[in-house]
Structures are given as C-alpha cells and as structure tokens.
Fold:
Amino acid sequence: MLPLEDYQRYGRQMILDGFGLPGQIKLSNASIVVVGAGGLGCPAIQYLGAAGVGRIGIIDNDRVEISNLQRQILHTEETLGLYKADSAKLALQRMNSRLVVDAMTTTLTADNALALLQPYDVILDCTDNAPTRYLLSDTAVALGKPLVSGAAQKYEGQLCVYNLGNDGPCYRCLFPAPPPPETLGTCEETGILGVVTGIIGNMQALEAIKIVIENHDYKPSLLLFSALGSPPFRSVKLRSRKPSCVACGTRDGKLAASRQADYVQFCGGPLPNWEDRGLVRGSAEERISPKEFKGIIASGVDVNIIDVRPSIEFGICFLPQSRNIPLKDILARPQDHLPSDSGVPTYIVCRLGNDSQTAADALRSVKGTGNVKDVIGGLRAWSKQVDSEFPLY
Structure:
C-alpha cells in the first residue's frame, strides 16, 4: 500500500490503463540512477521524482555555472557554484521532501562504476562524452541492467535503450569503434537549444518509467529528433545484440564481456582543451597578445582586421574595424582577403585563438603577403585581459 497522501499526489497517473495502483507501487519500490545532472539529466531527474520513483541516484562531479541555466532547469542562480548533484537533490527535495535522493559528487570511472551503479534497477546515461558512454554500456551489461541513453546537440537529439531484455543490443553493438575526439564538438563549441535537451531528457524518464512498471514493448529502436524536421521524430528499428560484440555478444553460450580499463585512451585520448590551445604564445612573428593588439588599434595606424568566426557568431559581438570573413572562405581563396597594400598589416581574430592560427597560416602561404598575425586567445582573451565589457558566450 501507499501513504494516504500519495493517492492524491499520484492519482492522475494511477487512473491510467496499464498503470494503476500496481504501477505506482512498482515506482515507489524502484531505484533509478541518473549519470549527469546537466541538460539531459535535469528534466529526467525532475520527472522521475515527480512520478514517485522511490530512490533516485544522481552522479555528477561538475559545479553549476551561469551558462548551464539556459537548459539545466533544476539549477538556479542561488545554486551557482554548488555541485550539480547537490543542486539537483535540493530541487527534488523542494518538490517532495519524502524522496530518497543519493547525490554523488564523484567522477564515474572503471574502478567505481560497478559499485556505484549496482544498487539501482535502471541506469540513465545523461552524459556528453564518448568514454563515459562506453563505460556505462559495459557496466550495464556486466550488471544485467537496462541503460537509457540520450544525446543532444544543436537542434537535434537521439534516444535509445540498451541492454534491454534478453537480446537487446548494447552501445558497442551500434558503435564498436569511437569517432576521433576532434570530431566531437561540445555544446560550448557547437551550441544547443535548451528545449531539445528537455525533450530528450523527458523521454529518457518516460522510457525508465515504462521499464519499471513493465509496460515496455522491449523492441530495440533508435529515436531521432530534429527540432527543425518535419516530422520532428523518426524511429529506426535496431537489430538484436551482435553475437560478435566484445561486450554483450555470446560465444559458446557464454557472455564475452570485455571491459575497457582506460576508456579515455580507447576513445582516442582526452578531448582537446581548445581554450588552452588558443592561449599558446607561439612565435612573436606570428602571434600577438590582446594587450599588444589593443595598443596597435589605439595608435590609429592602418590595419586589416579579419574575424574568422561564423557569421552567426560575428552578429553576437565583434571588434570595431573588424570585418567578418568565415574561416572556410579564407581557406578557399586566401589571396582574395589580403589588403592591396602589402605594407598594411593583417590581424586575425576568432573566438578562442585556434581558427585564427589556421587562417593566418593560409594567408601567409600567399606569395608576397605582408605582415600577418593572429590574436592569442581570441576574443575570449580580449574580454578577460583588455575589455571586461566585451561579451563572453
């Protein structure tokens, strides 16, 4: 039976066909762990708590930043600086003080994954990096637990339930080899519409609830979502698990699980830190600091300033006197973007100081090119070192 208050709290879902009192009791007895309390994790956590899941685990070692608030809806200005797991727990307890919430402010690794995830019935992958995705999939296989995985970027998202039932595929069945780290942009680099993470995160919660109340069809599929698509949803039917899969495949009737000890190296090493790379000083003949660049602008000499960011970013903010020529256009025809007077120096800026180096190299390759330098650290360094009123995004 349920506490008397819960009949009113959860009555709207208990009267549904296929749900009823048995479904609510299953939820109250269930335990679900959410790995990642960010754009995907926040809506998933919120709706799992609202639905009455008995125990919710939250694993995240990041802290709340102001850039998170656009999509990570459990965090607020009041929780800036807190661990995201703790912030999400506070939000759940404000909604329902009787919820049991385990906030774990730790990094999930191959050493602790089995111990941290074992107590829970269902695992939600709300992360944004390849090493953790492979780790979660392998761990779910080893523990025999379903893994509800979501992903979102720009205007698009996807959802899949792995290791579900007796023959549901795992993540490695679909993606046996990871893509190169350089090809995996983060939300900071590529952008994300917050509503997209909300849609995918909510659907992760829905899949978890269906599994718990045993109202899932157990048919493996990959759901693709595009906010600009018509229709916005598309479902791809998946095959059963691959017998040859190193993680979940069967050979001679035995599970051939092969857990990768170093998932970061398996995925090609750590993701590049583009901000740090853009701050490398390099040669004085090729790069200039933001403060030195400011002095040149203030001197009033004739200069050619090229901003190589995409035009959509140039429209957000730009330096006076600069003109926008996206990097792809520079690389296509560098000779078209140099001043007619080779005595006029050219200075290249970008967001972080990486694309500007590529553009400057292309311009210097043109025969007869004059002085070409790029700004160390780009516009982010300009904002931090020269003009604190210049927008950061």
